[in-house]
Amino acid sequence: MKRLREVTKDDGGNMNNEMSYLLGMIVGNGEIQRGATQTTVTIEIPHKKLKTEFKHDVGIFVKASVTDIRRVLESLLGTALTFTQNANASFLSFRKPNEDYLMREVLRYIGGATCSDNVRISPEVYSFTFDERKQFIKGFADVTGYIRRSNYAFKEPNYRVYFEVPYNWCLVVDFCNLLKSIDIPVQTIDWAHPNMRDGNLVKYNEGTPNFWKKEHQIKVWALEYQPVGFVVLHKQEALDYFAEEQKKPYIMQGRDPAESLHKYYWEQTRRRRVKPKHPGENDEFIPEKIRGKHYDSWTEIAEDLGYKEDDE
Hints:
Number of domains: 1
Number of helices: 11
Radius of gyration: 20 Å
Helix content: 25-40%
């Protein structure tokens, strides 16, 4: 299991790797309940399925991983983390007085957010040290990311890590830009947009016009994400296996896998297949900034919402 303390803490400021990891978990899948004197934070780790890729029980693996997470975070928090679990998810929670310094810092970084549906990644996070940003991403990944054999593009072994973000369009862009800040390209984003999820109006014509209102999926090559990794054990095990599998065809052909895979969408030739207009393009589920627009490619949405090449 990869330990949270593998990366040396930065002593140059108030932030550290443990705090950054905790913030990533909260932003990725946390719920914040503010009371008059105390605040409760609950973090959900979904079980995408009951068995891992290697036929192990997901719940047992998450429980084992949480032992490591608790050891580090309880030292940071100065209080016990409560752990509960059901068939579909594991939950970590803690409660602290509102005037507690750490709680004030958590609330400052998440602003007025109450859950992952309305949270943003604070602009300050992009100024964290490189290692702290990696830890934030790792915390976010432990509660939103997953990898399995079916997560390939075009054909095996083009395996990818998926990060699922329900409803929060801005958080998708924030996270993609945080990945960019440590030089990890996004392979694609499966936006919850009618032009992307029902591009040929198949579901619309079948009588399910809202089929496209799903979670957003950010997809990153397994090999590209491997340097960050997961703390949750079964996710890390799968990542290591599928990243190594992804390397093999390139090595057999005498090619550098990293050179072949490390590409941002704006560095590639863009191929667009023209799609028909969808009546859902004006739906209020879509952010006002892009509502009413028609898109033929995920990259057009990404560019309009702010995941794009830096301006010179």
